[in-house]
Batch of 2 targets.
Target 1
Amino acid sequence: MNSDYSLAVHSLTLLSIMPDRMSSSSALAESASVHPVRIRKVLSMLRQHGLVETKEGTGGGFILSAEPDQVTLWEIYQITSEGSLQPKCSEANKQCLVGANMELVLSTIFTDAESHLGAFLQQYSIADMVNQVQQHSHSL
Amino acid sequence: MNSDYSLAVHSLTLLSIMPDRMSSSSALAESASVHPVRIRKVLSMLRQHGLVETKEGTGGGFILSAEPDQVTLWEIYQITSEGSLQPKCSEANKQCLVGANMELVLSTIFTDAESHLGAFLQQYSIADMVNQVQQHSHSL
DNA sequence: ATAAATGTAATGTTTAGAATTACATTTACC
DNA sequence: GGTAAATGTAATTCTAAACATTACATTTAT
């Protein structure tokens, strides 16, 4: 799956650990080892869906604007990666019975599969991510 | 998801429509609009798992070597695309609590998610693909 | 023998992902 | 009000992965 997803989960987890102050794109970028501009792009999608608030100018940055236990991995998937389960099909030969219909048949099945995936991912919230990340670090 | 998957499903569906003679990589390639060498590569994976038999030399080609209703979309996924649900993570900063553990936490969740996907895809066989492709073509 | 096929490695081409640069805009603070 | 620190976003460059293409060894029917 595309890496915007893990970057979004990563960022939201960090933000939920620092709920009381703004984090800059540079700080988030350093933790994820990516370019700050990319953080701004991905978090801009999250902002459009109300998951974070942003503030420009000195002292600005990003801050979580939802309850960590209300933001699920499914919601993040929908924002950053919806449709990515769909197997890519090169444009097949429409003269052929299979070529003409395979894409539609597969697409129907995988749309269904993605909604099953949704039910599964809905079980996990950003709050769970924080817990699990902390548990793992304790067991080191 | 990667396109080897849809190419494999496409090819197996075609082969199961022509169960009594060998199909050449050129013929399969024409239906899927890809290069014959790519067909040979993908079907070579399927051969290693016993789904098709191949024969070199004049009159050779590919033929299904399993019952269409016994070959599931899950088995094909495992052969061509296992792990592709896993969200890509760039190597994060290990100094950071989140950076150090996020990959493992996500990977655990998505390994589980992939096995749920498996249960879903196991419902569909190549025989179902043939049926659905044919039904769609009748409704045109 | 020859022609038709797969097997596979090597190479080139295209495309998508990501970084980088550039710059406009916003905002805090002196 | 001026400056520095931040986001927003478009344009560009760089890189890696996907895919096609070429090349050639091998197999096999006729």
Target 2
Amino acid sequence: MLPEEKDTINQLTKAPIESLNLHSITVVTNLYRAAQGLRNKMEREVLAKHGLSWTSFSILYDLWIWDSVETKKLALSAGVSKATISNITNTLERKELCYRKVDNRDRRITCVVLTDKGRKVMEELYPKFHEGEVEVVSSLSIEEQKVISSLLRRVIRENDF
Amino acid sequence: MLPEEKDTINQLTKAPIESLNLHSITVVTNLYRAAQGLRNKMEREVLAKHGLSWTSFSILYDLWIWDSVETKKLALSAGVSKATISNITNTLERKELCYRKVDNRDRRITCVVLTDKGRKVMEELYPKFHEGEVEVVSSLSIEEQKVISSLLRRVIRENDF
DNA sequence: TCATAATCGTTAGCATTGAAATGATATTAA
DNA sequence: TTAATATCATTTCAATGCTAACGATTATGA
């Protein structure tokens, strides 16, 4: 559903107009569409060269910043399940971009650690990714960027996202 | 990467601070996090009962509004590839929520049509989905909802998302 | 102590996703 | 007309993603 097409719901839905909160619909539709477009653009223009998905990249990013991260924290950070982290870690390990390391104090916990190769990939990829970030929001002024970040953060905080 | 943690990049990255546009990073991070949280919430609280993913639901929604839609338009609307539409249509067909119909004028084109059962599912599901939409943005005032929609729409338009 | 519960990562099974290859149909050009 | 090209949808294959089940480990409490 293209955003502008969504307006036609009033004419076509049996539900009375007054029972629909049109502003909520618009926010949600535009929010998801922008995020989806962002992800597609980054995967296509930046990440495809190294065969990385958005989630794979976000995990590598965490490892780049923190060197070693528990799988549970990776899942929380990326907003995916632990099972997904397990699968993606397998793929990244196969590419020799990271490796697993069992915690000595609590052997239930597994940490994921960045390899030198993984660090090199991030040092090459991150600047390009950042270029993409800048480009995507370049139509907004700094002030508008602050406003939208603040509003998004409110949504995130109030929903425990 | 949690939003608040992203701030630490300045201390940890080798790149000079002045070469990073921190506002862009914040917008992109919060945008994707909010959208991911939104999707997870809806799939968990509303769509799981009928075994539908976000994309499946958005396709059903298009069909609900338009009755019959070409697969190409469905892909454009949902922001996924035609292959994905083909697979999801298979699943929805298996559930008898829609069926394919080859175009008579151009037999390369396939339209997807909503069944009565599909319409009933949407009539049951959409009100609950809409409740979720309202809930997610309820921490923002109407005026703030208008602002964020407007800014998101600018991003969408400028990037051809 | 030692049985029970809680926590953690992985696995199994299934649906989703995209790139690339394929097949079917339509259009174009010679 | 007919061969080449273009445009569709589908299939194939590998990766992503979730839930539920599982096994291993640690914590708790009688």
